[in-house]
Amino acid sequence: MARKSREDLRLHRERVRTKLKEDDNNADLIQVLVGMGTSGIAAGAPGVKAALIEQCKLHGIENVRLRQVGSLGLDFAEPVIEIRMANMPDTIYGPMTAELVPDIIEKHMLDRELVGRYVQHRPAPDMMED
Q1: Distance CA 65, CA 129 (A)
Q2: How far apart are CA 41 and CA 79, in angstroms?
Q3: Which residues make beta-bridge pairs with 121?
C-alpha cells in the first residue's frame, strides 16, 4: 500500500468532517456512539457493539449510524453508549452488557422512553428546550 501524502490525509479529514456534519444535521438519523477506549474494550464494549448491530437488524432500524469512539469520559460506567436522536435528549447509558441492549433498543429507540436505571448522563430538562 502506497504511503499517504499530507494532502491525501487533509482531503480525507475534510471528507470525514463533512460526513459527520451531514449526520448531525439529519434529523431522521439515530446516532449511537459506542465508547471503545481501552477501558471500554476491557469492560466488554465489542460485545455490546455486536449486540447493537444485531438488534437494529432484528427490529428493522435502518436509519441508525453506529460509531465507534474513544472514551466518553465515564470510565467507572464502562462499557457505555450514547444515543442521539430527534426529540430525545442525548443520553449516555452504562454500564452496558449485550443482554441489556434489547431493552435499550426497544424502550429508547422504538418507544422513545429513557431507561432510567441505566442512564449515566443526560442534559437537564431546561437545557433540552434550548
Answers
A1: 24
A2: 7
A3: 92
Q: Which CATH class is domain 27-123?
A: alpha beta
pLDDT tens digits for range 55-73: 999 999 999 999 999 998 8
Task: Determine if the pTM surpasses 0.90.
Answer: no
**Mean predicted lDDT score pLDDT of the chain:** 89
Instruction: Domain ranges for the chain, please list them.
Output: 27-123
The Cβ-side half-sphere exposure at 39, using a 13 Å CA radius, reads 13
For residue 128, pLDDT over 50 is answered with no
Q: Which three cell numbers stand for residue 20?
A: 459527520
Neighbours of 8 (CB within 10 A): 11
Query: H or E element: which one contains 121?
Result: strand 119-121
CA dihedral 52, 58, 64, 70 (to 10 degrees): 10
| Residue-wise pLDDT tens digits, 21-46 | 877 777 789 999 999 999 999 999 99
Q: Among all chains, which residue has been given the C-alpha cell 450514547? A: 82
Sheet holding 91-93, edge to edge: 64-69, 30-35, 81-84, 91-93, 119-121
